[in-house]
Each structure stands twice: as C-alpha cells, then as structure tokens.
Amino acid sequence: MMPSMMHLSPRHTARLQQWLRIASLMLAAAASPTVAQEPPSAVEEQALETSDGVRFGAWYYAAPAETKPTATVILIHDIGGSHKSVSDLARALQRAGCAVVAPDLRGHGSASQRGGESTAEAHQLLRKADFEAIAASDGRVRDDPASSHRGEIEAIRGWIKKQADAGRLDIDRLCVVGSGLGATLAAMWTAADWNWPPTTAGPQGQQVKALVLVSPAMAKRGLPMTGPLASEAIRFAVPVMVLAGTNDREASRFFDQLKRFRPKAWFQQRDGQPPEKARDLEDPSDATAFLIQCNTTLSGDKLATDTTVNVADKVKTFLGMMLDKKPRE
Fold first, then answer.
1. pLDDT, tens only, 68-86
2. Strand partners, 101
3. 295 Cβ contact partners less than 8 Å away, ≥ 6 residues apart
4. pTM score, two decimals?
5. Among 16, 286, 294, 315, which one is most buried in terms of CB atoms within 10 A?
6. Is 153 left (phi over 0), alpha (psi -120 to 50) or beta?
7. What is the biggest distance separating any 2 CA atoms in the chain, rounded to whole angstroms?
8. Pairing between β-strand 289-294 and β-strand 266-269 as defined by DSSP bridges
9. Separation CA 10–CA 3 (nearest Å)
10. Radius of gyration of the chain (CA)
11. Dist CA 179 CA 45 (whole Å)
12. Among 33, 34, 97, 107, CA closest to 67
C-alpha cells in the first residue's frame, strides 16, 4: 500500500511526490482521446527480405522534420494484424517525436501472399518454426548476410543500422514495442540481440535499450515466454513496460514473473488501485519494470491503438525516462 505523507521526512515526501508525478504521466489522458494537431507526416514503404527468403514490407514513419527523435522504435503487430492494425499507434508515436518502423510479418498483410493464400489463411497456417524464424537473430558477423540468420525484426534492425551509418537514424536509442503475439516476438528478438558476442571490431549486440509489451501472454501459438524470461536481457538488463487491460491475467502473470527477477526495481499501477513500487525503491525513475493496467477490456492491437487509453503517451513517457537516464558512476 502507498505510505501516508504525514509520516515521511521532507526528502521522502519529495520522492513520493516524484513517484506520483510519474504515475500521473504514465496514466495521462486515460479518459481523453488524443487529438491530432497536424496533418500526418509522410510514410515510406521499405522492401526487405529475411535470410530464409521471405520478402516483406516495412513502413517507416520518420520523426517530424528538424526534430531529434526521442527514440527509434520497431513496432511489431499482433497475429492476424499488419502494419495497418498498429498504424494509429505508429502515427501517434511519430507525432510524439519518435522514428517508427512497422512491418508486415510473414503470413500477414503484404507478406501474406504465398502460393495464392489469402491473408486470413496465411497467418492461420503459420507454425511455431515460422514464428521463431521471424525473431531469428544469430550467426558470426551480424552485418554480414552470408554469416548470419535474420528474420523480419533483424532485417529491420539491419535497415536501421544502414540509416544510422548515414546519419539519418540513431540506433543507440533503439527500442521495441510488441503487441499480443508481437510482444512475444519482440521479447524473443530482444533476448537474441543481447546474445550477440563481440568481435575484434567491437560489440555487435545489446542495442535494444527499452522494451514495451502490450498484452503479453505466457504462451501463445506454441511460443512460451519462458525462453525470453531465461535470458539476461529480459530478466535484468533491458527496461520493460507491460501495458494491459483490466482483466488481462496473462499479462499480470508475466509481470509477476518479471518482478521476481527485479525485486528492487518494479513499479505497478493496476486499474482502480493506488500505485505500488518495490519496497527498497526510493526513486521511481530507477525502476526498470513497469506494469500499467488500463481501464479497458481491449487487448493486443486494439488496446495499442485505442485513443481513449492513449498508449502512445505512456510509451513515449516510458521511453523518455529510460533513454535519458544518466549512467551510474
């Protein structure tokens, strides 16, 4: 339970007030729709290919002109969705100052036409191995296509790396947002990113700086979260925010598992309850695991793009907090 300010020293009162301000920011505009303030910026379609020969489209939502992007975001849709089903979130993050890349995963949208199958049939035919291929990221030399395996997410990372080398994007502020099954894929790929070994030329991995999971499940379509939860990245290293609806027990189960690995660094705001934090966490900005439970029954892409919940503001606040942290001395 939240302690009373009457029994706190001025220093601890200031800490608690900061905690409540952060909770307020995370829950900002929960009851108010987001209103577009300017015409949408241009969106560019990129044609990419995985190492196993899947051609797919990825849509690039550039940050507003003359704006330094808050973050470079890879946005992964839910099963049965596409870049279109998360385009409202991509647009909102773009308006908030992020550069966003949202793909159509294999079996979905523009990447669904294999052997004449319709979109619906294509994603229903996907198997565990197909989903594992989407999150594939391993090999000897990461940026050498001949010696690495790359699925859709890794192919997007490769495109971002090329843009970063040309000065157009910042891969040092790389973040991943996944929705529904896309949350599982995002967690799997983040774990793989942190597993890349360094070479004589320098580090190859550990590029993901923050991870947002919308409606994550402990297991879905044969993909358990136990794999990512066994990785250093998800257990300890990468800041994670979980966004979920009121009755989303699967997301709560995942966050409860995450709290076990970060007993001194978690913060949660469950719908209708006071905010809570780890007992020994004085400064809420030092938390690395967040649960924000929204007052809605929606999940997946529908939650991610519901303007009454305003996910984009919560994501932007979280990413800004995590990316702007000063390294500990």
1. 889 999 999 999 999 999 9
2. 60, 74
3. 30, 246, 271, 272, 309
4. 0.88
5. 315
6. alpha
7. 68
8. parallel
9. 14
10. 19
11. 21
12. 97
- What backbone phi and psi angles, to 5 degrees, belong to 279? -55, -45
Whose tokens are 């279109």? That residue is 84
CB 302 within 8 A of CB 311: no
In sign, the C-alpha dihedral spanning 205, 75, 318, 275 is: negative
Task: Spell out the residues 6+ positions from residue 135 whose beta carbon is closer than 8 angstroms to its own.
Answer: 151, 153, 154, 185, 188, 189, 192
> Going from the N-terminus, what domains does the chain have, and what CATH number goes with each?
9-323 (3.40.50.1820)
Question: Checking DSSP bridges between strand 219-220 and strand 223-224, what pairing results, if any?
Answer: antiparallel
Q: What is the token pair recorded at 200?
A: 């004589």
Per-residue pLDDT reduced to its tens digit, 218-260:
999 999 999 999 999 999 999 999 999 999 999 999 999 999 9
Helix or strand or coil: residue 142?
coil
Q: Three-class SS of residue 214? A: strand
Element (H, E) at 278: none
CA atoms in the 13 A half-sphere facing the CB of 125: 14
